[in-house]
Amino acid sequence: MQLKGIFLLLSLGAFTSYYVYQPIPDKIEERWKLMLTDCFFRSLSHLADFSELLGLKDYMGVMMFITFAERVLPVSDQRVHVTEELFDGVEVVVYQPKRQGGDTELRRAVIYLHGGGWCLGSARMGPYDLLARQMVNDLTSVVVSVEYRLAPEHHFPVPYEDVYRVVKHFLQRGVLAQYSVDPGRIAVSGDSAGGNLAAAVSQQLQQDPEQQLQLKVQALLYPVLQALDLNTPSYQQNQNMPILPRTLMVRFWSEYFTSDKTFFRAMMTNTHNSPESAALLKFVNWSAFLPESYRGTYNYSVPVVAFSAGGSDGPSRSIADPRASPLLVPDAALRSLPKAYVLTCEYDVLRDDGVMYASRLRRAGVEVTHEHYASGFHGALMFTVWPTDFLIGRTMTENFIKWLQHNL
């Protein structure tokens, strides 16, 4: 019996070690902390798969545990005044520096859009609350953190439309005056899916003939920018990397557009393009827009056009919409865009989206700061709260805010 107990204990230890261990590149710092963090995410993902298989709760419904677990109550402190408001019917959390006696100077403002694949996340999560407070304190700025509605309950274009309404509402002189904001010093920023929304809003504002005030800068943090080619070198290289493996990113994309699992399966094999989207593949031809150092040994092949659009509102039509895939606009639509900051990470499936966008913006004459982290992984900027606090997350935050200090 004692030998059986020892055997079971050793077997359990071996299985646990096998499950926790992930082959993480040596360049990534704090590798064991990342393994343990990713172990939690993978466990929750497996539970979500099992729950959906049994018909108990859909995948994203289970994954929302991450959002709920990190929720905080946004409250004012000694330096920051926090209010929860509605901008044109959309929930926002507004962070403002508390005024000192005689302080009448107009402030900068940052409209911030959280990540989470359009399906998860919240402006009221601890890391976003902490980031907003740091921007208020370091920049003496107003921060508007947007609580846009999420897929799959609200498919595209609802999350985008929520964000656009908030930005349009805020960019009214009367509203800016209410918050003592300088109309010429306003930024839009976001990470991951939030970076997607920030890029899309920046583009659409420029094309809005009724819009008088414009943004000064856009800051895109490891943004997701296109859904046409899901086999770029970074999607291939990092398909099993922690936090955002390729399968999860593809699931986010498909859930953003539709609950039809057929489309998810097509996206997994990169056969989800239809004639509607195929005409725009030239804008995501990574052999043309990626520097050789990012292409590596991968060879470009045009994605297969094999999917039916499913009518005028089908998902294949949606992926060709620049409000969903900002990388798809022609050069002429890029030329008038505001100065940009693009952050990318080497070990991220979305790396090439950001690199290609930075390349295309530069070619169009837009001033771009591209900050690439050779040891970075997706989501790192949000890992700044114990026990998942990473040094690289703090470095990214400091550099991002420093750029805003000099450019906003």
What does this structure look like?
- It is built from 17 helices and 10 strands.
- An 8-stranded mixed sheet has the order 1-2-4-3-5-6-7-8, sandwiched between helices. Strands 9-10 form a two-stranded antiparallel ribbon.
- It has helices spanning 2-20, 31-53, 59-63, 65-69, 126-139, 158-170, 173-178, 193-206, 233-237, 246-257, 261-268, 275-278, 286-289, 292-295, 315-319, 351-363, 391-407, and strands at 80-87, 90-97, 107-113, 141-147, 181-191, 217-221, 339-347, 368-377, 384-385, 388-389.
- The protein is of the alpha/beta class and 408 residues long.
- 44% of the residues are buried.
Provide a compact summary of the structure.
By secondary structure, this protein is of the alpha/beta class. The chain contains 17 helices and 10 strands.
